[in-house]
Recover the amino acids of this structure.
């Protein structure tokens, strides 16, 4: 519509004569977008972008829709027709329009600010919701190409997280067959995604989605929230399988972010566009121009290795993009190739008569040469907006990688574009991004966040997602080796989140603060989509915080989490597949107790990082890692106030230049453990072993 309608002079005249046109960046103001998208979905049964809504002067919606061609065609009214009809209705049926818009908002406000009649979920719902969601996802599983659902295929990481969580639950319960089935779906899906064209084999990272069912031809946009969440699920897969395939994919994503998406102060940018010019000086942009290749380009660049590379990545003279799948009326991808791996690498090495190590080395050299050529092409536009919520997701992924990737097998060979940096560098990235947010987007006096930054903080306040995702990132930053100050800040932000968004009577969190009268709806969001919902993440944050505290502090967090989940009881019972991460949260809170791994010792000790890596070396989403340095007075004061049992445990087990680990659950702890290998072995055992 930008090209067809908003750049059309006739459309512009109608808009300027009859309307006040306002363009909203939905990433900048997701609260505004949510109000009017909800209105359109409620009235017309569906929504999407571009979104056009016509409002009265007091901002009440009158009518709206998604795509309108400039003139009547495709069986749809043209945008000019719509403008004339809205003007006519405003002139002749104004009262009816205004009243219907006001009524719609009232009804939506009542429906979307649900409250709970009880303070916690009914017995059995957490287990049933988890099982139901796993069953529904299994029914939509694509056993041929991986993933859940059909084309277009989105890499929805919350689905992977649910299946991993469910598999772990089944394994612990001794239901090994069901656990294996869930795990195989996840592993196969992750492999297909990584081998598909939705994965950028040359520069790293993942595109937004694929238009076909086999993850081949993507919509080439790259979003920060996808990279962050996908890095985490590949890290989880590595923890479970110890297969470096998954660790290499996670490194590939994080190295792409480090190279292309980080600003001068450590801030992490939000996206790269899908479109770019085909050559320098061209004003016309095309989808995927930066990423696709002709066979002539491959031959001319790779020379003697071209045949091997073309064979490996399915490069064809006529191009490998099946236009019937893409429904591309302009045929823009004719003769172009998107890299995709269709065959097993070991089999391909045998076919070309090379040892697997040499074969991978050749592929790495080829990718490096193509990367150098591609780097001279006009780049897609970089959206250098810094969004707090998405940075929170990325902080989690970098913090986790800093310790989980210490567990990679020694001698692991990295091929381009994976850099293979010291995993400690990932912690530095996480801490720099967090420091940027604290410096530029946090008010030390009010303890409030701003939503985003570009050439300065935006006017938009922080929303629920900003607080919840950043708190989650801070908890990961602390648990994976950061200082106590990150945990203290997480608690400060949780207090502010409760002050601004918590419905203390009805339960759960609204997505916006209640201070802006121009925002007509305060919604309690629950849908776990491309991004998890703020309420799902908030519930898990509360559960994690409760596990670190004792007494009234722990009870406060746990009761808020229970009340929050009770708000969404109907969704958990009837539409579990829409809320996979909330299903995990509901199960977490139903557990009798959460496992604690307490490390006691100075962080400067040479063994600290290795034992901390061992603490995180096994997949267990119902585990909290606490590390205490008894020589640090600030830390000891904190734990004396929040959990005196932890403080006492730290004092009783502290020795200079030593690190001791204790694994605690159900009010009992293991004997002190002093070796990383022993800790990893203990944590890998079933829960009954502790």
């Amino acid at each position: 519509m930008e090209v067809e309608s908003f750049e059309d002079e006739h459309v512009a005249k109608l808009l300027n004569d009859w309307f006040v046109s306002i363009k909203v960046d939905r990433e900048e103001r997701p609260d505004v977008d949510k109000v009017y998208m909800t209105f359109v979905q409620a009235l017309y049964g569906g929504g999407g972008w571009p979104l056009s809504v016509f409002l009265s002067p007091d901002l009440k919606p009158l009518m709206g829709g998604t795509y309108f061609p400039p003139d009547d065609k495709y069986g749809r009214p043209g945008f000019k027709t719509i403008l004339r009809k809205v003007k006519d209705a405003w002139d002749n049926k104004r009262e009816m329009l205004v009243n219907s818009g006001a009524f719609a908002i009232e009804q939506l406000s009542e429906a979307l600010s649900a409250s709970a009649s009880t303070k916690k979920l009914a017995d059995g719902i957490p287990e049933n919701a988890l099982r139901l969601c796993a069953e529904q996802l299994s029914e939509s599983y694509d056993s041929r190409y991986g993933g859940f659902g059909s084309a277009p295929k989105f890499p929805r990481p919350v689905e992977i997280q649910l299946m991993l969580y469910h598999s772990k639950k089944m394994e612990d319960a001794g239901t090994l067959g069901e656990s294996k089935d869930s795990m195989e779906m996840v592993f196969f899906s992750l492999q297909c995604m990584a081998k598909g064209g939705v994965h950028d084999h040359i520069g790293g990272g993942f595109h937004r989605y694929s238009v076909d069912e086999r993850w081949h031809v993507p919509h080439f946009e790259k979003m920060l929230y996808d990279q962050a969440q996908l890095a985490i699920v590949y890290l989880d897969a590595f923890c479970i399988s110890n297969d470096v395939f998954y660790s290499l994919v996670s490194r590939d994503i994080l190295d792409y972010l480090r190279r292309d998406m980080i600003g001068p102060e450590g801030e992490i940018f939000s996206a790269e566009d899908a479109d770019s010019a085909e050559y320098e000086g061209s004003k016309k942009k095309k989808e995927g121009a930066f990423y696709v290749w002709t066979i002539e380009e491959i031959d001319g660049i790779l020379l003697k290795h071209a045949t091997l590379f073309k064979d490996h990545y399915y490069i064809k003279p006529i191009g490998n993009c099946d236009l019937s799948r893409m429904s591309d009326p302009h045929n823009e991808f004719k003769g172009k190739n998107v890299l995709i791996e269709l065959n097993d690498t070991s089999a391909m090495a045998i076919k070309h008569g090379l040892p697997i190590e040499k074969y991978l080395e050749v592929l790495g050299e080829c990718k490096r040469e193509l990367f150098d050529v591609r780097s001279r092409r006009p780049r897609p536009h970089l959206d250098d907006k810094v969004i707090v919520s998405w940075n929170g997701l990325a902080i989690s992924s970098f913090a986790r990688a800093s310790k989980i990737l210490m567990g990679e097998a020694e001698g692991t060979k990295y091929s381009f574009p994976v850099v293979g940096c010291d995993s400690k560098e990932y912690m530095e990235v996480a801490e720099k991004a967090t420091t940027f947010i604290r410096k530029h987007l946090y008010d030390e006096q009010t303890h409030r966040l701003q939503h985003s930054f570009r050439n300065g903080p935006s006017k938009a306040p922080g929303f629920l997602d900003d607080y919840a995702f950043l708190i989650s990132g801070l908890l990961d930053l602390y648990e994976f080796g950061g200082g106590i100050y990150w945990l203290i800040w997480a608690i400060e932000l949780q207090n502010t989140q409760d002050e601004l968004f918590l419905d203390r009577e009805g339960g759960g969190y609204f997505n916006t603060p209640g201070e802006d009268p121009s925002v007509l709806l305060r919604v309690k969001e629950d849908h776990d989509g491309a991004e998890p919902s703020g309420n799902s993440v908030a519930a898990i944050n509360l559960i994690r915080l409760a596990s670190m505290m004792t007494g009234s502090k722990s009870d406060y967090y746990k009761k808020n989490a229970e009340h929050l989940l009770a708000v969404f009881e109907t969704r958990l019972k009837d539409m579990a597949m829409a809320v996979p991460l909330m299903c995990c949260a509901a199960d977490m809170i139903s557990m009798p107790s959460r496992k604690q791994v307490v490390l006691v010792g100075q962080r400067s000790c040479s063994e600290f990082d290795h034992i901390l890596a061992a603490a995180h070396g096994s997949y267990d989403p119902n585990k909290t890692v606490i590390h205490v340095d008894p020589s640090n007075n600030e830390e000891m004061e904190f734990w004396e106030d929040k959990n005196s049992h932890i403080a006492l445990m730290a004092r009783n087990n502290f020795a200079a230049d030593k690190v001791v680990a204790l694994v605690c659950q159900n009010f009992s702890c293991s004997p002190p453990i002093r070796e990383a290998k022993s800790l990893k072995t203990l944590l890998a055992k079933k829960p009954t072993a502790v």
Q: What stands out?
A: DSSP finds 26 helices and 17 strands in the chain. The first helix runs from residue 9 to 18. Confidence is low (pLDDT under 50) at residues 323-329.
